[in-house]
Write a structure and sequence with these properties.
single chain; SH3 type barrels; Porin; 6-stranded mixed β-sheet; 1 helix; 28 strands; flat
Length: 418
């Protein structure tokens, strides 16, 4: 009796094991003949059909009414709820596996590990972004590319266990996980597994005494390897009041970063396309190179800054007679990107770009985007975004009018991650 009481005190929750081997720790909310509602420590509230449950383990005996007398429903104690338990499919079923520090196991496909984040496509939970600090173990089913600081990339099957990373390749490695820069799957060929992205949309419609339409769209597409990040992002704003445009701009950025070590990276490619006829810019092209430094790069907190020379070409929408219709100029570009997980579901993201040019091209401009991102569900976010665009010396239009220096936008919309 004393032994049983001690085990009960050690228990952390009920356990549900699916037919695919995934394991969740938490509390059984509802248990009926046809389904089980389970509150997972990691995944939140889940509903499982009986046919998808291999085992249902309780920390204390409970009488289950109307439940079928099958072997998959058992009552257990803390011994079956300890982290030493390993799914039987690990290493043999062709899937990647992740164990969280809560003792839960996820089965599926490892997308990548980078910047202390683990992107994992779970069979049951779909795509998840996990914090590396919350992960106890990782098992890859296939060979992957692994990058450690100050070492060439290693290629082989990987096991992460607590604080060590094991690479089983032509030259086996076993190094501390603090030296890990990134892991991406691959067989030497590019594939969709290394791509991820998101799409955000904010729409406002108003009718009556005033007719107004406002649409803000943003999208991001990224491809990551252990040492590199290719990022393409788009931001567009359109607004119309009583059939008169009040905003119409689009911005596309492309950057390619190569990580040198845990702090430094080079940016051999940075390119921007900008279109804003209301600011008298038919289009503006800025291309250059840069280098950057991570001020912070840890779980839940990232801040990187970069700078470099560029070349800019601007085609004006309209100009006065005898004025140049375009401007070309060398430029200096400064960038800052800050991301902080305020809570488990709330994230602050702030990006800033400053460009210094000759006076005819505007002399100085900046573009700032601040976003509060609230995770509603696994792939769905609610975003509140403030955008500020500034041009110090806007070009005068053909009618003699001068565009405003600043444009401000405050949007509320939904985002989808994939």
């Amino acid at each position: 009796m004393l032994v049983f009481a001690s085990l009960t005190l050690l228990a952390r929750g009920d356990v549900l094991v699916g037919t695919n081997g995934e394991r969740f720790v938490g509390t059984i909310i509802e248990d009926t003949t046809n389904r089980v509602v389970f509150e997972s420590e990691f995944a939140g509230r889940l509903t499982f059909p009986r046919s998808k449950i291999e085992e249902l383990r309780r920390t204390t005996p409970v009488v289950v009414t109307n439940a079928p007398p099958v072997a998959s429903v058992v009552t257990t104690n803390a011994l079956t709820n300890m982290p030493a338990w390993t799914p039987p499919g690990v290493g043999t079923d062709g899937s990647d596996w992740v164990q969280l520090k809560s003792g839960e196991w996820l089965r599926g496909q490892l997308k990548y590990i980078q910047h202390k984040d683990v992107e994992f496509d779970s069979d049951e939970m779909d795509e998840q972004t996990l914090k590396l600090k919350d992960v106890r173990k990782v098992y890859t089913a296939h060979r992957v590319f692994t990058q450690f600081e100050d070492l060439p990339p290693a290629y082989g099957m990987v096991v992460i266990s607590n604080d060590l990373v094991f690479v089983n390749g032509p030259e086996p490695l076993a190094l501390h996980r603090d030296l890990l820069m990134g892991i991406t799957p691959g067989d030497g060929r590019p594939g969709l597994r290394n791509w991820s992205g998101n799409l955000n949309l904010a729409l406002n419609l108003q009718s009556g005494n005033k007719r107004q339409t406002t649409l803000t769209t943003s999208a991001e597409l990224a491809r990551r390897t252990p040492k590199t990040t290719l990022l393409i992002d788009y931001l567009g704003n359109y607004s119309q009041v009583d059939d008169v445009k009040s905003a119409d701009n689009q911005r596309v950025n492309l950057t390619y970063d190569i990580r040198l070590n845990q702090e430094w990276f080079v940016r051999p490619v940075q390119f921007e396309y900008y279109h804003d006829p209301l600011a008298n810019i038919a289009y503006r092209l800025t291309a250059g190179v840069g280098a950057g430094y991570y001020i912070f790069d840890r779980t839940g907190l990232e801040w990187q800054v970069s700078a470099g020379p560029s070349y800019q070409y601007t085609k004006f929408d309209t100009v006065e007679t005898n004025q140049d219709a375009s401007a070309t100029t060398p430029a200096a570009v400064l960038n800052s990107y800050f991301k902080n997980d305020i809570t488990k579901r709330l994230t602050l993201i702030q990006s800033w770009q400053s460009i210094f040019t000759e006076k005819d091209a505007g002399k100085y401009s900046h573009h700032s985007v601040s976003t509060l991102e609230f995770e509603i569900k696994r792939h769905l976010d609610l975003d509140v975004t403030f955008i500020w665009d500034y041009l110090q010396n806007p070009q005068q239009k053909s009618d003699g009018s001068l565009p405003q220096n600043s444009d401000y936008y405050l949007t509320v919309g939904f985002g989808v991650r994939f």
